[in-house]
Amino acid sequence: MEKRKNGFASGIGFILAAAGSAVGLGNLWGFPYKTSQNGGAAFVLIYIACVLLIGFFTMISEIYIGKRAQANTVSAYKAVNKKVGWFGLVAVIIPAFIICYYSILGGWTVKFTVNSFAGNAGILPTFSVNTWEVILFTGLFLLISAAIIMGGVEKGIEKMSKILMPMLFLIIVGIAIYSLTLGTGVNEGLAFFLKPDFSTITPKAILTAMGQAFYSLSLGMGIMVSYGSYTGKEISITKSCAMICIFDTLVALLAGLAIFPAVAHFNPELLGSSQGVALMFIILPEVFESLGLIGKIVSFAFFFMVSIAAITSVVSLLEVVTQFIIQKYKFNRKFAALIVIAICFLVSIPIGISLGHVAILEESGPAFFGLDGLTFFDSVTNTVLMPVCALFACFSVGWILKPEKAVKEIEEGGNPLPNWFKKVFPIMIKFITPALILVVEIGGLYSEITNGNYAVIVFAFGLVLLGFVIYTLFLKDSNTGTNADEKLSEEYIEN
């Protein structure tokens, strides 16, 4: 078989790259604290059910849309139907905005990695408002991610994934084993994380599990469409999706086993305050500080692992935007990547300043409609736009292309599907999965309205409208490119 020159060279490379996209900061602290606050093991069971009912089938749809078109997200949706090509432009807009704020947290992880041996306990308030230092580490993080993108899909993304993802897994397993052997408090930490408490399973907890399953798999942001476009017929979509879901869930569970026994051992009173940024950048550094020299080593390993997760996630986000720019405007890959990170870096500056002052110090600073920049744009993308984009994928496969056609094309290349899947898939992709995603969307909108964040909703749907207008005026009747006519950089050209 002739080797693909602008795609994944192997199935395992694709799976690791897609899993790297899915495994991010949300897995390593979002999942553990949400689990602890919503019924422990009962929440985990609901989460796994949501991965199967929402994540698995949505991921199949997105990868299939990309694979059948072998093109960027705009061209991929145009291949579904020219009238819905704007779905793909929305799928470019979403990751562009996510990069702008995610790279700030990525910069924080790099800072905490290199500062581990000096001690990270208590440095967040000072570091987060040190504008130039935040800008420096954000820029460094983006440059590392861009360097991987510049190498192309096979020599950049795939090669990076084959190195970093096994490394991340080994580190998290090592930290989990270490935490489980600490002794006093370990059982309490495990009970806090895994002991079922069905009395806490409320409608809100179920909605949280649905949202976490949806977001943790990198759905609704064009990534799986883009990565799917770089796969050949020989790669099984269903088997790949199953392995990605399993790996992502396993890492999330290991994160809980690594974090909560350690917190319970050293600072049990902090278990109840395990909240997002505080858990990652305030509480855990205090735990590591109490361990002396061994704590500095564990701190370095932990934040290095988190940095890997952040890099693999941002690389996938960058690829969605870069791929479109390369194929639409026929730019060199290096030049396209530099354009993307330059724009995102400039936008990230006010967001980073706002995050330090408004969210960390809770003082007056550059706010976005009363919220810090990260919270505002995270709500715009995660709460509103990502479920909308996932609905686009389900609608495209379920109602435009039709499930029967999708099943037939998925089986091409010698990938037969079991009979039960052929019977279940049409029902799931047309009715059940979209209905569950709609519940996530409505729940998110209700939460924003309840909190008075009307600007989030207006801004989000304004971006959807903008995507529709730009596509209709400039892209609908023009060539938006495919992988086949992508101008490859020198690193992509083989002998």
Question: Overview of this structure, please?
Answer:
The protein has 495 residues and is mainly alpha-helical. It contains 19 helices and no strands. It has helices at 11-22, 25-37, 41-69, 73-80, 85-114, 124-128, 131-150, 153-180, 186-194, 203-216, 223-228, 237-266, 276-289, 293-329, 333-360, 373-401, 403-410, 419-450, 454-475. Helix 16 (373-401) crosses helix 19. The longest helix is centred in the middle third of the chain and has 37 residues, at 293-329.
Oligomer: single chain
Q: Specify Rg, calculated over alpha carbons.
A: 22 Å
DSSP summary: helix tally: 19
The biggest sheet amounts to: none
Helical percent range?
Answer: over 70%
Order of helices and strands: HHHHHHHHHHHHHHHHHHH
Structural class label:
mainly alpha
**Number of DSSP strands?**
0
As residue ranges, the low-confidence spans are: 489-495
What is the terminal separation in angstroms? 16 Å
Mean pLDDT over all positions: 90
Overall form: globular
Strand residue content: under 5%
Compact overview of the structure:
This protein has 495 residues and is mostly helical. Helix content is 76%, strand content 0%.
What's the layout of helices and strands?
Elements: H1 11-22, H2 25-37, H3 41-69, H4 73-80, H5 85-114, H6 124-128, H7 131-150, H8 153-180, H9 186-194, H10 203-216, H11 223-228, H12 237-266, H13 276-289, H14 293-329, H15 333-360, H16 373-401, H17 403-410, H18 419-450, H19 454-475
Helix pairs in contact: 1-8, 1-12, 1-14, 2-10, 2-12, 3-4, 3-10, 3-12, 3-16, 3-18, 4-5, 5-7, 5-14, 5-15, 5-16, 5-19, 7-8, 7-14, 7-15, 8-12, 8-14, 9-12, 10-18, 13-14, 14-15, 16-17, 16-18, 16-19
